[in-house]
Design a protein that fits this description.
The structure is a homodimer.
Chain A lengths: L6 E5 L6 E6 L6 H5 L7 E7 L3 H14 L3 E7 L8 H13 L7 E6 L1 H13 L6 E5 L2 H7 L4 E6 L2 E8 L4 E5 L8 H18 L1 H16 L2 H21 L14 H11 L7 H18 L5 H14 L15 H8 L12 E4 L5 E4 L4 H12 L1
Parallel strand pairs in A: 2-9, 3-4, 3-5, 5-6, 6-9
Antiparallel strand pairs in A: 1-2, 7-8, 10-11
Chain lengths: ~375, ~375
């Protein structure tokens, strides 16, 4: 392939600006693509035991061919890896390897790896550079861009972490071929989010192209990744530290995080699946409050259903769940201010907004209905 | 006392700028002094079990009188508290208290508390505000200013952390009255540092005023704290992230950290004591390399000795220490670049400079001589 097959998006953040490169076969060309952003030709690749057998060799080979010295650390796959224990073990392994402030970490994996490695990079030696090589659709379109990093705590997801931008994101769309359908769908929920937030045309495009995209069409996948990264890059450039507009990207997430917390992060519920259900809940609540008409609500849920995303609690092991437990999870959300929860509601597809005016009663009624 | 007894210094860092307030009785007036920088009238005070009995009540009372809601968490005193375990336990306690991004942490204590609380603030909910109330001379003149926060690892001190600026520093010089002489002296080593780095007049002032200052003269203490904070604020404003000049503040620290690491952080060697010995080593090496004349070397060591600071290994339990072990600690310093160690050397009192041109041989000879 030629360089023209690579699309480059810029995340515009002053001296923290960086490129997102999207294309096929980028891992095999990682050496030449990464070299220009490395302070010194030394990286430590961090990946998980699912991804290592697939891509670690190719990535290492490419970097070595570009005269970049590599070490690699493999951690267990799964959400449980986003923990204090792994943060400690990883940073100590890095210190044992005598990383310097000019050594770059490479996060090779999905959202868990990106979040953990980004956070570890932000605190090791008070901050060393890192590069994202996202290997899931979800990580490519969402978590690898924008600098939110972190780990989970027993009080909820991502409650400890840092805003810390990568030096480069390499989204190799070829890796999507090795994802199983469930993982792909989970990522697709975050793709849809950009349509729901403020881009009804993109949603319409997805209504038409979602199925072939999920079915394997490489061109459509690439287009979806580019559109999603572009949307995210624009929001992040406007509001890096989530003082305002960036919160829109949490559409479906306040509900979704509560579902994940109750599910226990054991893999029973993927993040993207939780977001899909949470988005359906946000549309439902918006509809019930008279903010969004039934047609848009129906259309949103119908498309998610049609591709196979969950839009209710039927796949969850929720029979013992309570309204109080879900409310308690939501009350620990990072967007809570003065005890007031912030929600992303919709006035229709592509018409999301931020509000603190949701009454607890309405919320509890919604949760009770979804639990019943 | 009146407001005119408070001196205010500004640390100029754009939207991360903040004031350092120096004066007597500031803890009793903390409520009115802190209120203007609080996003919401809620703080969590974090202190240790040495400091809590002395000042926690007064601080709480003052905040409550200013209608600020307070919680308090007390952790064990001592360097061992700067650990991953405490970071995790503290951030989980904060989440349990349902802190929000508008809740401010107050670090009430010495350098250990300031470093731990600052780092915890930087990662909890990806960053919540914090205020420093340093209760040791060392913390007042050095660690509470400038935003370096962190914890220790088994590979060395402060190797994991963040650059994270407080919203305010309240240096109440009255608290120095409760410090024992050893703690006071340890802080004095960092005061001296500012003279050694680039202010020969300040060193001369300390030669005259050091003893009465240490003996209890309140006016002199206040003057020394102000001069030291001013010096630090200027350096930090120029080079927040230690890309250059800020490294000068590490005079005596590369050696000192190695001594601390070998001593095991058990309280046998205080940080300021390690810095005093490290500074003597830096002068010695500079002298041996023909950079600094014997008179300045002698004068520096003589003053430290005259006030009772350690300037050799005689008080350390160093009989089993080796050159290799010390070299190994120094090679993990955060300032190492491309395998090359960075040192702060002196051309005389008030004439420090940064260099990477120290040969391993010279270093090993120095260490061997100090160990013998």
């Amino acid at each position: 392939m030629t360089a023209s097959n690579i699309s480059t998006l810029r995340v515009d953040l002053g001296d923290r600006s960086y490129d997102i490169k999207v294309g096929s076969g980028l891992i095999e060309r990682a050496g030449e693509l990464m070299a220009p952003v490395l302070a010194r030709p030394r990286v430590v690749i961090i990946t998980d035991d699912n991804v290592a057998p697939l891509y670690l060799d190719a990535l290492t080979k490419s970097l070595n061919a570009a005269h970049v010295q590599t070490d690699a650390i493999t951690v267990p796959a799964g959400e449980q890896t986003k923990s204090f224990a792994q943060l400690e073990s990883l940073s100590e392994k890095l210190l044992e390897l005598k990383v310097e402030r000019t050594t770059t970490l490479v996060a090779l994996g999905g959202g868990v790896i990106g979040d953990l490695v980004g956070f570890t990079a932000s605190v090791t030696l008070r901050g060393i550079p890192f590069i994202q090589v996202p290997t899931t659709l979800l990580a490519q379109v969402d978590s690898s861009v924008g600098g939110k990093t972190g780990i989970n705590t027993r009080f909820g997801k991502n409650l400890v972490g840092a805003f810390y931008q990568p030096k480069l994101v390499l989204a190799d769309t070829e890796v999507l071929n090795t994802l199983d359908r469930r993982q792909l769908l989970a990522g697709y929920a975050e793709v849809l989010k950009y349509g729901f937030i403020d881009d009804p045309d993109f949603f319409e495009w997805l209504e038409i192209n979602g199925k072939p995209l999920l079915g394997g069409d490489i061109g459509l996948r690439r287009e979806a990744v580019l559109s999603s990264c572009g949307a995210k890059a624009r929001v992040v450039a406007e509001d890096e530290f989530e003082k305002g507009k960036r919160a829109l990207l949490n559409l479906g997430h306040t509900f979704g995080h509560a579902l994940e917390a109750e599910s226990g992060y054991g893999g029973g519920l993927l993040h993207g699946e939780a977001v899909a259900i949470g988005t359906a809940m946000a549309f439902d609540l918006s509809h019930k409050l008279g903010l969004c008409d039934g047609q848009d609500f129906g259309r949103a849920v119908a498309h998610m259903k049609s591709v196979g995303l969950p839009t209710d609690f039927s796949t969850l092991n929720a029979k013992d769940w309570t309204v109080d437990a879900l409310m308690n999870h939501m009350s620990r959300d990072k967007k809570v201010e003065g005890g007031t929860m912030t929600f992303i509601m919709v006035k229709g597809i592509g018409k999301s907004f931020i509000t603190q005016d949701i009454r607890e009663d309405d919320l509890r009624q919604l949760l009770a209905r979804w639990l019943s």
